Amino acid sequence: MRGLSLLRVAAVAAALLAPVAGQAADEHASPAIPNHEFSFDGIFGTFDRASAQRGYLVYSRVCATCHSMRQLSYRHLRGLGLSANDVAALASQVQIQDGPNDEGQMFERPGRASDRFRRPFANDAAARAANNGALPPDLSVMAKAREGGADYLRALLTGYEDPPAGVTVNEGMHYNRYFPGHQIAMAPPLNSEGQVEYTDGTRATVDQMATDVSTFLAWAAEPELEQRRAMGVRMILFLLILGGLVYAVKKKVWANLHQAVG
Description:
Layout: H1 2-28, H2 49-61, H3 84-92, E1 95-98, E2 107-110, H4 124-130, H5 142-145, H6 149-158, E3 174-175, E4 183-184, H7 206-221, H8 225-261
Antiparallel strand pairs: 1-2, 3-4
C-alpha cells in the first residue's frame, strides 16, 4: 500500500509539472517560418529573373567572402537571363587561383565563364581559422538542404535580434530567432540598407536583399525547376488526352460487340 501511495504522489507531481515543462519548451522553440510566397512557389511558379540577378549581386558582395558555391560555374549565370558578355564581365571581376606555371608557381588570373565560383578560402582548415573554428557551409544546394527552403533562408537572414530577457548568448555567437537553438556563429550578414548597390534602382533594404539572395540560392539549387515543371504539365495533358482516346475506343469496341451479339 505504501508503494502504491508513492506512485500516486509521483503521478500527481508529474501531471502538475508537465504544463510548466511544456511552457518552458515553447519559450525556447523556434517560431514558425514565415511564408514569403516567392514567385517560384506552386506548380506554375517561375523564377523572378530580376530578383535572382540582384541576389547574385548580394551573394558576390556579401556572402562570397565566407561561403563557396562550388557546384556552379559562372557560365551557369546565363540561366538568369544574362548575356555571354555579361557573364564574362562578371567572371573577370574575380581573381582565380591557377597553376602551376612554367616556374612551378601558383598564380592568380581574372576569372573566365568556364571557371567554377571562386572559393573564399584555400581549404576547410583556412576557413575554420578565419571564422573562430566554424566552417561556413557551401551554399550551392542550401535551399534544398534546409527544411523550409528559401523561406527558411530569408527568415534566417532577417531573424537577428537582441536576445530575450534571461537568455545568455555564448561568446562569439549571435541570437537568431529562426535558427535552431537560436545561437548562430555567423554575424548578421545583411545589417544596413544600401549595403549592396543595386544597378536597377531597386531600394536595397535588408528585407529586399534577403529576398533577392534567397531567390538566387533557390535558383542555384534547382536551376532546371521551370523546365521540370513544364515537362510535368505536358505529361499530365498528354495522359489526359490519351486517357480520353482510350475511353472513346473502349466505348466504340464494346458498342460494336453488343451490336454483333444482339
